[in-house]
């Protein structure tokens, strides 16, 4: 997709839809192109939500190399943070600060990513701040996936039982989303409910969109 095509769409739709298209380009696997489009759009339309999207994409890419090892996914808690691009993270933080002047959904997602990115270790993560940001996000832009992210933060702040209760509440909305049973497995494991955790991991494997992710959950479910 060219910038001209993006701008053409902007004349036909709300800017929020244009940002959504760029984010879709990113999630579809064209990361470099999406970052480029978001950067060009930030020059043409320097608004908080555009800065938020650009910051979110840059922060995600700054941590991308640590998410897999030998083609296998690595959970956030186990990632080698020395592989994160600290220079890229430092360059993205001012964009987050500009984005938060508007407080829209991309700004809040970028702020959540920034809190993760600035933590030197998983244990040092400011989960209370992340939970507060998720509270704002689900209030202004409710979505099941944002609610699931909030459940993870809730578990970190208030314990796995709180996270499990929230995840179970989301079952009707996210029953076929593989990360719901994956999160439940983590909460159940922390509570010592190992058989249930194993069943949840197997469910995540059955629902996983790729063979690599399915194998990860099957391996986690193995005794």
Secondary structure blueprint with pairings:
Elements: H1 3-12, H2 15-27, H3 31-44, H4 48-62, E1 68-69, E2 72-73, H5 86-99, H6 105-118, H7 127-140, H8 144-158, H9 160-169, H10 171-174, H11 179-190, H12 194-207, H13 211-221
Antiparallel strand pairs: 1-2
Helix pairs in contact: 1-2, 2-3, 2-4, 3-4, 4-5, 4-6, 5-6, 6-7, 7-8, 8-9, 9-11, 11-12, 12-13
Q: What's the number of structural domains?
A: 2
Determine the N-to-C terminus distance.
Answer: 47 Å
Overall pLDDT metric: 93
Shape: globular
Sequence of secondary-structure elements: HHHHEEHHHHHHHHH
- Portion of residues in beta strands equals under 5%
Please identify the structural class as seen in this structure: mainly alpha
Radius of gyration: 18 Å
Strand order of the largest sheet: 1-2
Parts with pLDDT < 50 across at least 5 consecutive residues: none
Query: Helicity level, as a percent range?
Result: over 70%
InterPro entries: DUF6596, TPR-like_helical_dom_sf
Protein name: RNA polymerase sigma factor
Pfam families: DUF6596
Domain DUF6596: 16-99
Notes on the protein architecture:
This protein is an all-alpha fold and 223 residues long. It has two domains: 1-122, no CATH class; 126-223, Serine Threonine Protein Phosphatase 5, Tetratricopeptide repeat (Alpha Horseshoe). The chain has helices at residues 3-12, 15-27, 31-44, 48-62, 86-99, 105-118, 127-140, 144-158, 160-169, 171-174, 179-190, 194-207, 211-221; strands at 68-69, 72-73. The chain has a two-stranded antiparallel sheet with strand order 1-2. Strand 1 and strand 2 form a beta hairpin. The longest helix has 15 residues, at 48-62. The radius of gyration is 18 Å and the shape is globular. This is RNA polymerase sigma factor. Pfam families: DUF6596.
